[in-house]
Amino acid sequence: MPEYLAPGVYVEETQASNKPIEGVSTSTTGLVGVTERGPLDVPQLVTSFGEFQRLFGGMLPPDAFTGPGGRVHSYLPHAVEGFFLNGGKRAWVTRVLPEQAERARRDMFHLDLANAAIGGSVLLRPALQDTGTAINLPRLYVLDPGNFGVGDWVRVGDGSRADYRQVQALGAAPSHTSLTLPLYFSHAAGAPTRDIAVTVAATLSPFTLRDDAGAGATELVLSGTAALITNLLPLTHQLLQVDGAEYVFAAAVVGLGATEARVLLETPLRLPHARGAQVDGLDIPAGANVNLEVAASAGDLLLFGPGFSTAGNLVVVGVGSAQEEVQRVGTLAQLPLDVPAYAAYPAGTIGQLVTLADDARTVTDLPTNVVVPLDTVAGMSAGMTFTFGANNQVVAAVNPALGLVRLAAPLPGPALAAGDAVQVGAVAANVVAYPTARVVPLDSVNGVETGMTFDNAGDTALVATVLPDLRAVVLATALAAAPAAGTAVTVGGNANTAQALLRPDVIPLDDVDGLAPGMSITIGADTGTISAVNTTVGAVALQAPLPAAPAAGSGAGFALRHTTQAAGAGAATLALDNRLGLDAGDVLRIGVAPDEEYATIARVLGERGVSPDAGVVQLAHPLSAGHASGAEVARQDVAVDTTRQPATLVLSPAAGGEQLLVGDGTTYGAVLPELVRFTTADGIAYFHRLDGAAANANPREIELDDRLGFSHAAGAVVVERNRLFAVQALDAGGWGDRLMIAAADEASSLAANASVLAANPPPGPGMFSSLQLATLTGIESGTILELLEPDGTPVAGAPLLKARAVDRASRLVLLDPPGLQAVHMNAVSNALMAGLNARVRSREWSLAVLLRQRPDPAVPTRNDNLLDQESFRQLSMDPRHSRYFERVIGATFTPGAPADDAGNPLRRWDRRSEGASHYIRVLDLEPVMANRTAIRLGPEALLDVLPSGLVRPARLPLSGGSDAVSLMGDAMYAGTDSNEPDQRTGLQALKNPQNISLVAIPGQTTAALQQALIDQCEAMRYRFAVLDGPPPDNDTLADVQDLRSRYDSRYAAVYHPWLTIPDPFPQSLANLRQVPIPPSGHMLGIYARVDNERGVHKAPANEVVRGIAGLTRYFSKGEQDILNPYPANINVVRDFRPNNRGLRVWGARCITSESEFKYLNVRRLLIFLEDSIDRGMQWVVFEPNAEELWARVRRSITNFLTTVWRNGALEGTTPEQGFFVKCDRTTMTRDDIDNGRLIVVVGVAPVKPAEYVIIRIGLWTADAEQ
């Protein structure tokens, strides 16, 4: 009783005499099954199929979720979709998996800044996916793995295809054979090889090349003695050594005469060879063969298995096979470069030792061993053989007017002189010198015209041709005798003088290629300007004569060119003051030693102008260094040293690389300076001075702890890295293998460009240095700081700093040891003295999580499409920082444990760790807590270069996820019960939500599981189980009757047959098949739809089943006559499409033998009433058990049942006909009352469904009275 002790007004609340009862939900469903992802054994409430997909993922491919015996576990997502399609509103979903299911994971790595001995190398042979271990051979073959040790972690490859593995063992010695030139053919593992010395066949040596043979030539024309040619003619597959540089097999030989033969080659030449180069036939000695351990591809320069190492020997590869070939054994070595590589030169690029010199020519006088005037050229033509003594050469051109022949190459042997007898083809002739009886060089040809009379003391002839560029005339007929040089003659009556060809204003040169009018030429101390170039004779005419005719053999040089604009590093064009004589293919020297570099002209840009033709030339490749305006430029003469073996690139270097790995570096760089030209297959030449002697490579095999996940080409990087943190999929299952992680350096720092006001060294021992900043925004304990120059560029050589504490009042940042160093102090003071401020910025990193769609066999191109992605910005590796990655993303956890791996309690609602990510959890792998506060920048930020040229962070996949489908079974679905709700699993976990009224395990039809569903419903009383009939193909009438016969329960119903939908994972879009799904999910949705639209008293039958294409089996009315009535009570889904009524559920019975509970709407109505009254009467407990309470109870229940009656759930036209409620002394004895029992007796008369609609029709005759 309330107390009223002091006078006053007392306002009191009184309880209403009637407490209403609220009806409970009848359609909240509980489902158990396998999903793609989601919390395990924790019921989750979803209110739409979209919400289910966000939490549990999408559909499951049956092929991937079919266990032993063909049992399929992929039905739950279809059931949930069918539930919501058919009107469901709420479903508790419990995901189950075997305990052996695994979560996908991967480790993230970083470059340890504190480790000065980080190893780095490259692959020397391709490493294929699933290889690299002692079991999965071959192992990795790595260039100079000196800093690697057993147990080290290494990254193989780059970008998204990088593999991180641990070194298990290191090989003891190299096991390769290095080649000078690439292989022509591919050879399988096990192909025989043989090491041989160069053995010249005495009967097949020496031959010489009659003609030049370019790279790619497939035939040679050889000259030799008649005996040699005779020996060579019948041979096939004969090994030849060409110029001591390369080795080819002759496929066939065709004679061209007694001393010449055309040799057809089995493989094209790799190198060009000049006429006269020696060719020898070689023998292949017998010997032991060694088989290849690893297949070799065409273009390779390394063989694995045979460890032949004698440089200069030969290796026969594919001994005795159709692809037999021979290559020279080299010494694998690295060439150090003075200028870094201009580009990523392709592997197989051939390097040759060359000599470059500024363009210079030699003064000659005819005859030379290339241009030969003869007393007759009648009957001569190009292609004939020019013979002088024992030497010969091919005639390249014949000029009848000048009476000379030009040879294809210099004639070997002694220099020709006037009077020498030669033979051209079958024509004999004598070498002459100008002037001749028909070609007379003169003092001047000014005023000389065709038809004038040439008169040498009465020996006359008419002028046929005037040659201004030679200051000479060609006569129509030969004079009786050639005038001597210096003889006075007349031409057209004007006095003149016959001259030799070499004179002060006409200079024959050994080469006039690249010369043009207007160019300056210097011979000795004299300089002239070229007015004309005669390419037939090989001479230049000068605008003004030199003081004297130069002597034959004198050197001739040309004026240097200069740049007119500065050319920066990376520039691909040069602006020159003089382009005369320059053309595509010319090699230029730019700058002077020691800073010169060499480049080839790709083309001359713009219109060619008048002398000096200033303008721009485009280079074949960008420059490596910058060159100022006025830099010296000179055209170069290139001479190849054919005595040095070629240096062929084994690997493609990175642009900017300072070393090139070559198949044979023997003697390269031993005597400096040496210049090497590297020519790619498309003809671009790159010139490099060597910076030292070639260093022999020391490769080794590396054995990994696990096989590679990707294939990696030769040249892929192999670098040492340290584990930083682990990434784990949030939930177990194979879905995690579709996750990718992309790490990047944060572009937008939390603290950006804060001005440094002061840099303070430690004030005393044991104290800390500090920075005073203009602002502390974005800076806190654990922030990494980078010191910048006033212009924003990083201070060179300045280590990163770590904030220990922040004093915001004084804007002071205390730094972790070692803190500020001299380089920091100097940078800050220098900026202050310049009236500026150094700056700092914070360093963070970001992490993106990407989820790919499930592989689509019909459209594989969609497999990399993203379903979702998350981004976590501005993360830190320091636990003191508010953006510590483990705290933001969430720490890893062990299912069933009370706390995560960081010691924080798990969330109650899903028993997973706290974290912002919906897909992953992370774990810092640094075991020493003190080390976690060291400077760690985050994972290495790998990049992918897309085909478009754009760059994006590499996407590293997780792996190892498993659903353990083979271990899925009844025990997994049924779960285990526990007194602790958190420990319940599977179906037992559905005991935790109290508002579930319908339960199912879609698609699982074993007796044990269906009985477990029934047992739970009977034990909890307020639940109803929906069971699936047997799946196809065991779904006949007898099969479903057999399944039904196992059970007798008023708390369950069976539906049959199974439904069909279009295959969500078609193998082909052109052939979409129908796949079966269980009916339970759709039936539960119909229950909910009918409950919401009509009420729980309405039987959920004669309702259209939405979202399906058909049925796995079509039952007729006659068959349903067997299935529907007692004792079967099986609810059938029927096809009424022939009647235009669609597919409908056509039954509403429980599988019970109790006739009063045979209709499931009656059973579910009673469940509704009982559960509602149970919850609505909880207030009665401990109330005074007397008439007042009894009356209140009667009123509450009566009011509730009246509402139910009015809704049509109970029979009768008045409430009294539909129900009664008793609670008085007739329902309770004194013993009941004394023992605290209040007993209410309620009777209800539920409406029954009109299952059989019977309409009786008879004949009726109308009557007037009626």
Automatic annotation (TrEMBL):
Gene3D superfamilies: 3.40.50.11780. InterPro entries: Phage_sheath_subtilisin, Tail_sheath_C, Tail_sheath_structural. Residues 1153-1257 form the Tail sheath protein C-terminal domain. It comes from the Bacteria. Pfam families: Phage_sheath_1 (PF04984), Phage_sheath_1C (PF17482). Residues 995-1150 form the Tail sheath protein subtilisin-like domain. Belongs to the myoviridae tail sheath protein family. This is Phage tail protein.
